[in-house]
Amino acid sequence: MAEAEEQETGSLEESTDDSEEEESEEEPKLKYERLSNGVTEILQKDAASCMTVHDKFLALGTHYGKVYLLDVQGNITQKFDVSPVKINQISLDESGEHMGVCSEDGKVQVFGLYSGEEFHETFDCPIKIVAVHPHFVRSSCKQFVTGGKKLLLFERSWMNRWKSSVLHEGEGNIRSVKWRGHLIAWANNMGVKIFDITSKQRITNVPRDDISLRPDMYPCSLCWKDNVTLIIGWGTSVKICSVKERHASEMRDLPSRYVEIVSQFETEFYISGLAPLCDQLVVLSYVKEISEKTEREYCARPRLDIIQPLSETCEEISSDALTVRGFQENECRDYHLEYSEGESLFYIVSPRDVVVAKERDQDDHIDWLLEKKKYEEALMAAEISQRNIKRHKILDIGLAYINHLVERGEYDIAARKCQKILGKNAALWEYEVYKFKEIGQLKAISPYLPRGDPVLKPLIYEMILHEFLESDYEGFATLIREWPGDLYNNSVIVQAVRDHLKKDGQNKTLLKTLAELYTYDKNYGNALEIYLTLRHKDVFQLIHKHNLFSSIKDKIVLLMDFDSEKAVDMLLDNEDKISIKKVVEELEDRPELQHVYLHKLFKRDHHKGQRYHEKQISLYAEYDRPNLLPFLRDSTHCPLEKALEICQQRNFVEETVYLLSRMGNSRSALKMIMEELHDVDKAIEFAKEQDDGELWEDLILYSIDKPPFITGLLNNIGTHVDPILLIHRIKEGMEIPNLRDSLVKILQDYNLQILLREGCKKILVADSLSLLKKMHRTQMKGVLVDEENVCESCLSPILPSDAAKPFSVVVFHCRHMFHKECLPVPSMNSATQFCNICSAKNRGPGSAILEMKK
């Protein structure tokens, strides 16, 4: 159960119940403050008996018959001496211009606060209630009701006279009344009635549940939620009633309206007052408890609960125990709950105290979160409702949150929150950095320092760098890499690093960091020297990025030693900046590196380094023999005699063979293959490449007394030389390995050749026959001859103008046409005629004839 936050010009009196003083983790829904100023003065000499609330002011009645008008701060604005005895009730119309008052001595007064209008009447019994029409200010609504032993309605007639009528009597004293719109609700000893002032009908009677309770000690509490919803609280029972219109078919002699109870439930304590709060209820409860020490019943502090009504039960939303003055002597009837609908203000009235409860706003919510040290939630709430909060600032909450985290030793989280909370406020950033320095936690805040907008003073960054330099070289290097070089004085940091290197000159982390600092300072020469010393992978990137080729002309060997592959690629890509000649000269004392460079150059372009091809022969021979032969084959600029000399000196047979063959000395090359390599397959391959009959003859002669060579020749010579030439030369009795297999292979190769020839012949014959048939079909087709055709000899129309005359036309397959008489007479040796135009082709397309006669 939440302990109410109560203050007197600050806070309410502390509770005598220690258990209720314990803080709850559940946030209260309402906040409380004592109504002071004039109210304090009044209640020091008098006691409050009743109160009513208007949006503009308050009206307080006392036991000594006084009525005070108060502002919302409790200051007295007006005082009325109504009676020498207790004021029982005060009623105000909605405009706040008319007030009705009744007292224990039977006096009733209804008067205008700002006009001379006034009604006085003294009855012979105590008047417990009075209620003026909500629209009393209107001339048509000059009505009010009073209640003692009976309920009277007073109305002003057209002659400005007041007339009264009895609405109800005979069921005991009228003890409570509420007027809303056209409906009047009141309670007597038997229950609650509702009267419709328009139809002049009483529309319901709601009996009270617990008749054992004295109605004067436990009075009924009435409250209109709206024009048709009445809330009744009596004893421990709550009923919510809805006034509804009766259907015309159900009227008969019944009232036009009826009441339906939509919710009914019991509460834990006795009800002293009710008020609506949206769809919930605010309930003021009178509490009695039994003392553990004396086992006697005593009056405990009253409670103000917020509940959610359900159909047959309710759900408690919050419950606050209120410490009001003199609660130990108060009874249930001494408490009243009044409320202001416009501002959701609730006034708890007791004889010696008036406490105001109001809904907690966002500022109050943040106050509670801060009190509970829930800073992150408070910060989030402030950000969400920054337009609505008045007493708090997001920055102040954020700073308090940072301080809280620091106090708890959560330095990293505190530093991370600085980014969000401090934002772009450079002054606050610097303040927090110094605060972290005081507690020795500069490292914690370093990752989160702003690096752009805003930029702090260089001293701040230098201070953090010095902190890392003293204790954490890796962290120092990380900051140098991540922070832009313009955040701090570079020369100061360079000097500091150099001082540390005097103690530890071989520390690679410091050396690398110093190189980076030199780079920021555009001192690329020093940076490059350090990178090369460290053999750092970024050296090539540094050279490219800052165009340091002029600085590396004398450092080519170092670069090659570090990474020859990357160095060569870089040098070849930038020949315009470092010439080939310069590189070769620098590598003169390192021929193995010189070879790597020239080999890569040759791979890129066979002609660029032609002046060094002679040198490369020796370099390939010394360091890279596998690539010597490809080099000799691809190069057109190396001197063959020099290459031959080197290869012969080193007894490089394959290279010597290639050079001899290239120089035209194929027979010596073949001889070297046979004598030096003893490789018949290579010799045969060489002979095939040269395609020289004399070489084949030399090969046969050399092999004739070597059985393994004869086998190799028999297996491979068949397609280039007639095997009979070799077989005839084999000496009788010579044992040749695998001779049978070789002869079988020769026969198989021969058979295969025969089969290939026969297959080709069949294909040729088939194709010839197919083409012949096609030609025959083509030649057998008719040829169109009409008046447009002319004789190719006389150029006159091929057909006579007179079709009746006989004619003879010759049409060749070439589509040339002649008059028969225009063709030469065929010779005696050959009766075949040829087209004069195509005769040069000799039995070409014009050799065949199609003769037309008529």
Automatic annotation (TrEMBL):
The UniProt entry, under SUPFAM superfamilies, shows:
RING/U-box, WD40 repeat-like
Q: Work out whether the entry's keyword set contains Protein biosynthesis.
A: no
**What does the record list as GO biological process?**
autophagy; endosomal vesicle fusion; intracellular protein transport
Q: Where is this region: Disordered?
A: 1-33
Record membrane topology: Peripheral membrane protein
Question: Could you tell me where the Acidic residues compositional bias lies?
Answer: 14-26
* One cellular-component annotation, GO: early endosome membrane
Keywords, sorted A to Z: Autophagy, Cytoplasm, Cytoplasmic vesicle, Endosome, Golgi apparatus, Lysosome, Membrane, Metal-binding, Protein transport, Transport, Zinc, Zinc-finger
In alphabetical order, the GO MF annotations are: zinc ion binding
CHCR repeat start and end residues: 568-712
Q: Which domain of life is it from?
A: Eukaryota
Instruction: Describe the location of the RING-type domain by residue ranges.
Output: 791-839
Localization, UniProt: Cytoplasm, Cytosol; Early endosome membrane; Endosome membrane; Late endosome membrane
Q: Does the keyword Zinc apply?
A: yes
The UniProt entry, under Pfam families, shows: Beta-prop_Vps41 (PF23411), TPR_Vps41 (PF23556), zf-RING_Vps41 (PF23555)
Please give the function described in this protein's UniProt entry.
Answer: Plays a role in vesicle-mediated protein trafficking to lysosomal compartments including the endocytic membrane transport pathways.
Recorded family membership = Belongs to the VPS41 family.
Protein name as catalogued: Vacuolar protein sorting-associated protein 41 homolog
